[in-house]
Amino acid sequence: MKLHNLNNRTVVITGASSGVGLAAAELFAQEGCNLVLAARGKDALEKAVQTCQSLGASAIAIPTDVSDFKEVEKLAEEALKVTGTIDFWVNNAGVMATGKYEETPIEVIDQVIKTNLLGYLHGARAILPIFKKQTHGILINNISIGGWMPAPYGTAYSASKYGIRGMTECLQGEVSDEPDIHVCALYPSIQKSTGNMHSAKYSGLDFKIPPTASDPKILATAMVEMAKNPKKSKFTDLSSLMMKGMYSLFPRPIINATSAGLRLLMKEDSETDTDGNVLTPSKNPMRIYGQTMLSPSKKQKNLILTGLGIAALVFLSRQLKPKA
Questions:
Q1: Beta strands 233-235 and 137-142: pairing type?
Q2: E strand or H helix at 83, and its extent?
Q3: Catalytic residue ranges
Q4: Domain 10-320 carries which CATH code?
Q5: Domain boundaries of the chain, sorted by first residue
Q6: For residue 2, is pLDDT > 80?
Q7: Are 234 and 222 in contact (CB under 8 A)?
């Protein structure tokens, strides 16, 4: 199933009110798609719809909490009313909580799993029967490099992403006898989006987006490419591919080193702790890009990535060197 023109195709995007989801909505709008945008926050969702309509696309908002299957079912039902078919479903809504696991409230841990893992399962459960009835459709799961390596001090988040990867690979087998139904996985690295600004943070951990973070619009472009030419999986940026490779070779040194790095950012007091958007809809800023520590040029970013790669190799070689 290869499509060169997405005009008048219907796409559902969850988590579409900000960050990567908003970037994807804008790009699908530019392709002429009919958009059905979902998120918890009604006002921000309506603003996203207006942005897509200004790009010449048809777009509607369906406020949805993906952790509630009944709401996801309603989302699918409303989306079907647009043209009678749903061509693409983008599972993208997600939340994150960082900090010491024992200092993370249990209700936050539970909700991270409900939103991320159950939210994707709910999306797949709602859309696959529709795809099979119409004999075509593409489910795109925005998973993260977190599906291949743990996010330090992000235990619940990591558990959810490993789970989504397992779900995706299992479903790929289930639809292997359906030539025009595809389940796709995207594995991006950390994004220069509002996601981190909206995330929950505990243990006095005030983590900022590093300057090497990837552009959300590149990930959004990968989503559009998957819609046109579906593949089982794709690492959307060089850093995610590098991290997967290095973690597969040196898992213990990498998780220990990255965890040690985050411990340096923790503070003794917890005045900066916040539940973020885990238990409630995201608050301002509701835009694509988030705040980073620095804003390097593309050349500087490549130099930083290269330097970090060399430093990591040196560190790992020393860690693995036999001791006398």
A1: unpaired
A2: helix 69-83
A3: 157
A4: 3.40.50.720
A5: 10-320
A6: no
A7: yes
